[in-house]
Here is the input.
Amino acid sequence: MALSAGIVGLPNVGKSTIFNALTSGKAQSANYPFCTIEPNTGVVAVPDPRLERIRTHLETQKVIPTAIEIVDIAGLVKGASKGEGLGNQFLGNIRQVDAILHVVRCFEDEDVTHVDGDVSPLRDVATIETELLLADMDALEKRKQRIGKMSDADSKAEKAAIEHALAIINEGCWLDRSSLSEADRDHLRHLFLLSMKPVLFIANVHEDDLAGSHPNVAELRNHAQETGAGLVIISGKIESELADLDREDALDMLQELGMTEPGLDALARETYRLLGLRSYFTAGPKEIRAWTIRVGSKAPEAAGVIHSDFEKGFIRAETFTLSDLEEHKSEAAIRGAGLMRQEGKEYVVADGDILHFKFNV
Here is the structure.
């Protein structure tokens, strides 16, 4: 399941630094606007301690976590919707992602210039969101004109959805957090509107403020709570340093900082949750692997994530839980205890299920 999230924000807020740390990539990071000219893409593993817990009881050659594609998009500026900076080129790139990771600068540093001269998280958020809303408004108006004279039922329903969406945007509201009906969303989905994407705010803090106690963070936290958006607090500088260390040295640094894990692990998991995703597991002698599904996926759909033939020829799924495995220590013991469930086509896969699929090609 190729799902992606795009990192956006004003220039010099730490986007590329965080992207590099996330992906151990080499995206250029410099103290001037537009140092990222083409979107950089990386694949980020989603840490899941359940995989190692499964391996404790089932021998395997390797463990494979699930992953999300992350796209680093150049810094947007005021007027981007009208082509300012590198404008529409990057707004187009954002349209292709499933969720938006909005990096907001919450640290003070005289050596790192701010495009507006000083640090103000809410002003910065308003600048970015206004540009994305204006871009959506332009897309909706153009679509409205294109189907203006069409009179079939679908076109009428789409025009009504467009009018509703425009009214919401004119109020300065983000469509994903609005009262837009599911039917209206279905009619607008093909437009890939920016404000219909869920948002996760990333508060980029000073390395001495990992707890997020600075007033800048409090402002952003309140805004996230009011709008229903997610929030993760990390220090791009620390994460960048951790990414350059080997595992043992990184663990030592985390311990010195009083951290149980890199902030980027929490960021990857929160992005996964934001996209409405869950994991199920397959386990065998070759690999123990996490697979990505959407909440509410039924067993045949989950099987299809592995291979389309599994979904087409689905017969049933055998499933057990990690708690079953930890109590009984092996699959054979689980079967002996009568806990290996046989589930059919209507079974809704639960997060953390361990599954074997029976299918007929």
About this structure: The chain has 14 helices and twelve strands.
